Amino acid sequence: MGIIKVSQSFKTQVTPDRMFKALIMDSHNLCPKLMFSSIKSIEYLQGDGEAGSIKQMNFTEASPYTYVKHRIDALDKEHYMVKFTLIEGDALMDKLDWISYEVKFEPYGYSGCICKITSEYQTKENVEIKEEEIELGKDRAIGMYEVVEAYLLAHPRAYT
């Protein structure tokens, strides 16, 4: 068993508050609308989005996965930060016990932000995970963020 830690960041042309509201606070409504070919629905199984809530993302038949469950561990609306843990679902690939994420949106320039994501992958005992598998997950996450950024740029009044 071991933990693999990965950090990544990227710049957006959208303010931190709008990215946070759209991607974190309202993802259960917005993401299935924008990514309808891969995300069927997102629903809260427990709680209402605050720390301790459990949220399930259900994927379409076009996706390689069927569902994942996330537990929200910490939520700081003032500093645009969330910590959550993927606790169940086939995205764990029978190789991982969990994946934890810390996502921060920090101001950058006049009207943009830097999104910083730190992920920790807890592997099951005697299991190794390939770097390509981690990269694929990172690419999917970045793709989701880019879709939301494009939506917010096209709709400047959304999430203000």
From TrEMBL:
**Bet v I/Major latex protein domain span:** 1-155
> Which Gene Ontology molecular function entries are recorded, alphabetically?
abscisic acid binding; protein phosphatase inhibitor activity; signaling receptor activity
Return one Gene Ontology term, BP aspect. Answer: defense response
> Any one cellular component term from GO for this entry?
nucleus
- CDD domains associated with the record: Bet_v1-like
Pfam family, any one: Bet_v_1
Family assignment from sequence similarity: Belongs to the BetVI family.
Provide the protein name.
Answer: Major allergen Pru ar 1
Species in which this protein is naturally found? Coffea arabica (Arabian coffee)
